[in-house]
Each structure stands twice: as C-alpha cells, then as structure tokens.
Amino acid sequence: MNSISRRKFLKITGFSVGAAAAATALSPMIKGAKKINKEKVKGIQTIPTYCDICFWKCGAIAYLKDGELWKVEGHPKDPLSKGRLCPRGTGGVGAVKDPDRLRSPLIRTRERGDEVWKEVTWEEALDYIADKMKIIKSRYGPESLASFSHGIGGNFIKHTLKAYGAINFAAPSFAQCRGPRDVGFELTFGESIGSPERTDIENSKCLVLIGSHLGENMHNSQAQEFAKAVGNNASIIVVDPRFSVAASKAKYYLPIKPGTDLALLLAWMNVIVSEKLYDIDYVTSYGFGFEQFAAEISNFTPEWAYPETGIDPELIRLTAREMTMYKPATLVHPGRHTTWYGDDAQRSRAIALLNALLGSWGRKGGFFYPVSFSLPGYPYPPYPVPTKEKLDNPGKKYPFASEELTTGIREATISGSPYPIKGWFVYATNLMQALPNEEETIRAIQNLDLMVVVDVIPSEIAGYADVVLPESVYLERYDDLHMSSFKEPFVGIRQPVIESPSDQKPNWWIAKKLAEKLGLGNYYPWNHIEDYLNHRLNAGGLSLSQLKKEGIILGQKRPIYFEEGIQPEFFTASGKIEFYSIQLQQAGFDAVPKYTRPQQPPGGYYRLLFGRSPVHSFSRTQSNRILMDMMDENEVWVNQDVAKKWGLKNSQIVRLKNQDGIVSNKIKVKVTERIRTDCVYMIHGFGHKSKMLKGAFGRGASDSGLITKYAVDPLMGGTGMNVNFVTFETGV
User: Fold this and answer.
1) At 128, is the secondary structure helix, strand, or coil?
2) Mean pLDDT throughout 207-219?
3) For residue 471, what is the DSSP state?
4) Residue 422 lies in a domain
5) Are residues 573 and 712 in the same domain?
6) Is residue 688 included in any domain, yes or no?
7) CA-to-CA distance for 96 and 64, rounded, in angstroms?
8) Are strands 663-672 and 653-658 parallel, antiparallel or unpaired?
9) Rounded distance, CA 98 to CA 621, Å?
10) For position 218, what pLDDT does the model report?
11) CA distance 249 to 251
C-alpha cells in the first residue's frame, strides 16, 4: 500500500458525509417540511449559521430587522471567522435577494444550451429524473451515472446517488485546484494540507508566498492571520509575475518569469543545503534520503536559475538566507489553486521539501497538526456493492491521484470507455467555468441521456441541463454539520434564517424526495433533517437546541505542534519525511523534483494568468447585486510598455484572442507597471454567457473560455491551465 492510500485510513478529518400550479401539486410532497418566521418579529433577531459564499464555511450571525434579513456578520466564537467575515460573506444578503436566482424547477424543451424551459412542479421534475435514472440503471448499470459537486451542501445528494449505486463522484477542487499541492505534500510528509489549510500564518516570523494572493484570494482566517503577521513585523517574501496586494506588504518582491517557480525553489534549496543553513537536527531525526537529495540539487545554483527565472543570483541567496534566519517559524505557503503548468505535483513537492529543510512541519509558525470534532455518522443501510470500477483514472494512469478526477469522468463520457456514462448530476459547480476546454465539456454533455443541475443561480452549465432544480440559498436551509479540522475542534450549524421566496427547496429535501421516487426511502429513515442532526448530536452528548442557539460548540483544545507534545509521525512509505522518494522512482518519476523549461508564447502573444477577487467567489457571485456594486466586471492587466507598443490606453475596450483562435468578450484594459511584459492577468469568473443571469450577462471576459489548452500532471491528473497565450484585438 503506498503512502497516499495508507494515509486515507489514518488521517484525522472532520466527519462528512408556474408558482401557483407548483404550490398546488407540491402539497402531497411537503410532509416533513417546517415553516419558519410565520410571524414577523419586531426589532432585531440574531440567528447563527455558517457561510456558503465560498468553501471556507465561516461561522456567521444573521440579523433580522422587523422580520426582514438585514445583515450578516462573523460569529465571534467561530475559529475560522473570528467574528469577522470577508466582503463576500457580508454580501450574503445579496444572494437571497438576487433577482436572477432560480425560482422553480425547469425542464428543457429545446436543444441543450438553448436555455428554453418550461416551469414544472417538483413532483413532475423528480418523476422525470427518477424515470430517466431507472432507465439508465437498467440499460447500463447505476455506475453509469456520475456526479460533480462542490461544497458540503452536496452530502445528501451524494448519499441518494450512492444508495442508487453510483460510484463516480468528483469535485473540480481536486484536479482543477488543490490536488497537486495535496499530492506533493502527501508524498513528502504523508499528509495533505487540508481545507482550511493547516498553515500557522499568525505565528510565522517569515512568510513566503509563491503566486499566493492573500488579500485577493480572500480566505478569511488566512487573510486575518496575514494581517497579524504583517503587524508583527514578519518578514514577507513574495514571488509573483504580478505585483499583488500581498507583494505590497513584502520585504522582498521577486517578479519571476511565469512557469519557472521550480527553478527558483531548486536554487533556494541549493543555497540552504550547500551553506548548511537547514535545520540539521530536524532533518537528521525525521528525514529519509537526504544525501541523495543533496546530490540531486547540487548543480541547481542561483547562477543556473538566473536565466530561467530572471531573478538575480544574489537576491536568490539573500532570500534563501532570510528564510533560514527565522526557522522553524518560516512558512513557505503551499498555495491553493496550484494547477498551472502540468508539473504541479512536483512543484508542490519542492515547496514541501523547502519547508522540510526549514523544519516547519509540525512547528509553531509553520504547519500545525489540525484537530477536529468527532461525531458518529447516521446509521444508514449499506450501499449496494458495485459491479464495476471507478472510471475517472483507468489503469491508475495517474498513480498518485488521491481523489477522483473531473476531467477523467468527462473523458469517459466522451469516449464511452471503459464503460459509458449516461447521466450527470451537477451540484453547485459551474463546470463551464471550472473545467478547462469548454468544447470538451459540451461534447461530453451531448452523449448524456440525463443531466440534472442543482443550483441557486442559472449558471452556464444549467443552460445545458435536462432538468434544473432551484436550491434554497444557505440562509434559507439546513445543511450537514460543520466540523472542519483546524486549530481547535468545533461543530457548527447551518440553519434557516428566513424562508425561501419562491419554490426553492433545500438540498436535503431534494435528495430525500428523489430517493423515495427511486424506491430508496429506507436510506432516509428520518422525516426531517432536524431528526438527522439531533441523532448525530445526541450520540456525541450534544443537543440540537443548544447548537441552534449558540451556532458554535467548541471542543477541548488539544496539542497542535511538536513542541506541545505531538508525537512526530509521517505516513510515508519510509515512515519519515521523504527527501528522496523511492515510490516515485519505482513508478518511473523523478525521485527529486526537476525543472523543465515551459513553452514560451509566440510572437505578439502573452501568457494568460488568472486569479481571484476578494469580493467574488469563483463564477458563483457575479449576479449578486451587493457584490456587483464592488466589482461588476473584470479587466485585463497589461504592462505599460506592452500597452505603449500596442497603442492601448487605460480602460480601452479590447478582445483577447488565444493561440487557438478563440476570441473573448469585450474587456477593459488596465495599464499598469505591476505586471511583467511577458504575461497578462485577469480575474476569474466573469464573461457569463447565460442569458438568465441578466445582471452578469456579458460583463467582462471569461478566462475559462480562453483556456482551450491544458497540460495534465502525470503524477495525479491535474489540469495545468497557465499554458495558454493571448493577443489583443483592438478596434472593437
């Protein structure tokens, strides 16, 4: 058993598991639902919950004023929000009041993508889905229905699909985001970074950010800890082709050539090892294969890295020595969105190895050992035994993929191999913007007999669905318990604050009713989700009434650092930190990361880089009118010398054309000195094509639409998307 699969058994994690006509037809199915706020209460009410605008799931307090939703703030007891929400979280009111949100079930009446629908009742929609699912099961087997999901809200829908017999489940958060990072750290330390990340930023004395846009990529607790570290005069080193907000706080800013991070990482490690600046006791006690590792990196000097990275050799040495001055409280941040160039797992492994040299794993100011609240699961019947294997990674083509691959499912849907996929369930993820190469996604969809989308807004992927089911937003529903691993154990609740305004339903209700339509009612022995929540809480000595009132229940604090008594343990093949990976070598890969020069843009083209906004979450919030007030479209960052060459002015409208001839929507130019001349940058999630998103339609340009190429990571199947190049079309 390799270290990753072994770790799956051993890691500590949180437990997861026509309006009038519609109202008439719904009455037989409403049993078990409960109404809230029947009478408007005068004055101020506060109801705790946790946020769903992004995946961080910060504890929150919703305020009602005279029975109307007024505002949302951070929960003061929550370890993640610490009493404060990011701009997206405070904009949660806008999700409820979004005029473009889905309001009733829809069944497609024309070709996929035409966005022509008829409104139906819930009974009609669920009957349609159940009938199609029964046909797929009888013709192809239940394994031929696959699911794509994002967030905790998908738990109950997954439960129904597993009871049906489905086995192919994937989330874009692995193959399109964090997967290379998790695999790189698992191969090195035997554990992944987790989510939220186990980074002890607030206690770091030196923080190194390599393309990590803290302050723009607004992960709440990390942004707060970053501000605290800056306030404590931590030494900040930022490596980025773009002068980001984080770079503005840095002691050292390294404007690296895109795609050359691995060369810089190898040079840093060369300096630290050759000058014997690493944590010798730590490496001697916990390291495996250090001598082979040291030999492998001996030629990667700063002088070697200079022509690759564009970073002066003396600056490489200076910053390497700076890191070692503060060890072990030096944290080289692992990043979040790490699918860039196709060698991303090895790049992340190099980051892990650099942290290992600094002795930061398990140490204060580095990486803590997360703890979580533990509650028993609900005693469901066992799921059916599958007769087929999962098809996202046939033959273990990507041997170190530790989770399912979205693009693997998409590829199998196109090819029909190793067996056909005939149904997709898509929950709370816009695959058109989340996956690279939109054309491949559309090709896969055309092979389906059924596609169901469950969401709160009519995203692009919903436009291709056979059935669209409108979900209640997070302030209108219960979800599963929140018990993320973090610095202290806690359990949080998401509960309805107000009623849904139209014919939207919570995901648990949708999942339960669909199960009953499929003859799987025995998998839902509870009548209402409160019964489910109460059962789990009572089994752990807690009560639902207490949690609903308090919102957060904290567990007993436990040690999180080696210094506090954590016994060092590494779930790798060697049982130690693997500087030299024999399992990678045996699988035909480099035992120590090696650098490969990335493809350069053709003449007149620039590498397309993309990132996040502090006021938007992926492509989910661009129609939220509160958040739109802060940013209603994106811009393309262009270096002022490039702009001068092309005759571009600030705020000029252009289109971007990629290397394959794909042309974007219109987008404004941001002329700036804050980006290199060999790349451009834009914020992800704009340029919506769904006509039902009236507020967001056509605003800005979609980076996803320009990502027609991607480089697949050979270790774990992640899709490197920073391999596309664009030029400008002016005169539009």
Assistant:
1) helix
2) 93
3) B
4) no
5) no
6) yes
7) 13
8) antiparallel
9) 10
10) 86
11) 7
Summarised one tens digit per residue, pLDDT across range 592-620 is: 999 999 999 999 999 999 999 999 999 99
Q: Are residues 705 and 659 part of one domain?
A: yes
The tokens for 658 are 């990629």
Q: Which two tokens stand for residue 393?
A: 């990674």
Domain holding 319: CATH number? 3.40.228.10
Q: Are 502 and 469 in contact (CB under 8 A)?
A: no
Residue type at 384 in one-letter notation: P
Structure tokens at 558: 């436990």
Q: Which element (helix H / strand E) includes 546? A: helix 544-550
66 part of a folded domain: no
578, 630: one domain: no
d(CA 543, CA 548): 9
Residue 511 near residue 159, CB atoms below 8 Å? yes
- Residue reference for tokens 């969809």: 445
Whether residues 579 and 612 share a domain: the answer is no
Cis link prior to 399 (omega < 30° from 0)? no
For residue 28, pLDDT over 90 is answered with no
Distance CA 443, CA 433 (A): 15
Residue at token pair 């018990």: 483
Question: β-strand 725-729 against 606-611: which pairing, if any?
Answer: antiparallel
- C-alpha span between 254 and 243 (Å, rounded): 9
Which residues are CB-contacts of 233 (< 8 A; sequence separation ≥ 6)? none
Residue 643 and residue 687: Cα distance in Å, rounded?
22
Q: Which two tokens stand for residue 123?
A: 């009974």
State the pairing for strand pair 653-658/450-455: unpaired
Cα separation, 452 vs 469, in Å, equals 8
Please say which residue of 585, 617, 633 terminates a domain: 585
Contact 445, 464 (CB under 8 A): yes
Rounded to 5 degrees, what angle do the CA atoms 715, 719, 724 make? 130
Q: Give the number of domains in the chain.
A: 2
In one letter, which amino acid is 674?
A: R
d(C-alpha 240, C-alpha 258), whole Å: 8
User: Do 326 and 199 share a domain, yes or no?
Assistant: yes
Q: Which CATH number goes with the domain that contains 638?
A: 2.40.40.20
Write the single-letter amino acid at 22. A
Judge contact between 435 and 410, C-beta under 8 A: yes
| % pLDDT > 70, the chain | 95
Interatomic CA distance for residues 684 and 705, integer angstroms: 10
Same domain, 219 and 358: yes
DSSP 304-343: HHHHHH---HHHHHHHHHHHHHTTTSEEE---S---SSS-
**Residues paired with 147 in a beta bridge:** 169, 425
Q: Are residues 580 and 699 in the same domain?
A: no
Residue appearing with tokens 């804050």: 674
Tell me if 143 is assigned to some domain. Answer: no
Determine the pLDDT at residue 23: 30
Domain endpoint, select from 550, 585, 620: 585
Q: How far apart are CA 413 and CA 87, in angstroms?
A: 38
3-state class (DSSP) for residue 661: coil
Residue 36's pLDDT is 54
Beta-bridge mates of residue 536: none
3-state secondary structure of 399: coil
**Whole-angstrom distance, CA of residue 672 vs CA of residue 361:** 38
Q: Residue 666: enclosing H or E segment and its boundaries?
A: strand 663-672
Same domain membership, residue 627 and residue 668: yes
- Which residues pair with residue 618 across a beta bridge? none
Q: 328 is in which domain, residue-wise?
A: 176-370+567-585
Please work out, in degrees rounded to the nearest 5, the angle formed at the alpha carbon of residue 471 by the alpha carbons of 630 and 151. Answer: 70
- Residue ranges of E strands in 476-598: 490-492, 552-554, 577-578
The per-residue pLDDT for range 101-159, each reduced to its tens digit, is 999 999 999 999 999 999 999 999 999 999 999 999 999 999 999 999 999 999 999 99
The three-class DSSP label of residue 469 is strand
580: three-class secondary structure by DSSP: coil
